[in-house]
User: What shape does this take?
Amino acid sequence: MPELPEVKTVVKDLNSEIKNLKIVDVKVNLEKMIKDVSISEFKNFLKNETIKEVENYGKHIIFKLTNNKNLLSHLRMTGKYFTSNKNRNNLKHDHVIFKLDKKVLYYNDSRKFGTFHIKKDSDLLNTNPLNKVGKEPDKIDAKVLFKQTKNKTIPVKTFLLDQSYIAGLGNIYACEALYFAKIDPFRKVNSLKISELEEILKYSSKVMNKATELGGSSVDSYARLNGVSGGYQTHLKVYGKAGESCEVCKTKIKKEIINQRMTYFCPTCQK
DNA sequence: AACGAAACCTGCGCGC
DNA sequence: TGCGCGCAGGTTTCGT
Assistant: This one.
């Protein structure tokens, strides 16, 4: 489901729903989602701590807890949070349930790819998984990025999806950013000039900031807490638009698979 | 070290 | 109506 705009939207909604609530109990229905520790360690770590704030670090969600503790959550493809059972019929995929003092927070994930980690503040950024996460595009120096592209013959599209170089882009926004930057997604990343990387970074930020303002993109299902749809899907220029005309040059948008991911682009505008 | 492919899962829409 | 196939917003692991 989510790329950076969707994660930021979920984080914002979580803050307004559950900030300052205390974790009273935790129920885990699917053990494999809890990484590195046993279920009882996981529960004991969280029990009786209060959620001070919810943040994102790349696509990871951090629940900042009392006593220098953190709960890390990654939604992968289909992770969703709910604080209500109204208007939903997917209860069978509620895999982790956080009983708070005033509400219940359900983690729902049909494909079961999501993960949870627990961390003390001292280990938060220097251990797996956050130690491998790069910066968001508006904080990256194109010169630094340029050095990282040396010796890399992978397509630029594949490079953009690697969260250790740039945090936040996923399949939709990588396609959109390359379209605005007029870069062919198949280009070998080591063939890009610094100026082209600058364009990619600029439009990555622009596209994702705009999408965040609109609450993310809801392409297949929804992005927000409690099933609310995002609004950016109507702004997409190429993603999911194979066969439609490019707004700029009227060429038909093409789709091709790069690194096992469907990739949409304008074969005329993107060089 | 770098890269492509497979793996992890379920659900949905499509063509037959 | 049912079945098989391909596809899905992500990341890790496995071979070469």
In short: Residues 1-3, 6, 59, 74-78, 111, 113, 115, 129, 161, 163, 170-173, 216-217, 219-221, 223, 239, 261-262 of chain A lie near DNA strand C (CB under 10 Å from a C1'). Chain A has a mean pLDDT of 96. Residues 194-213 of chain A form the longest helix (20 residues). The CA atoms of residues 142 and 162 of chain A lie 16 Å apart.
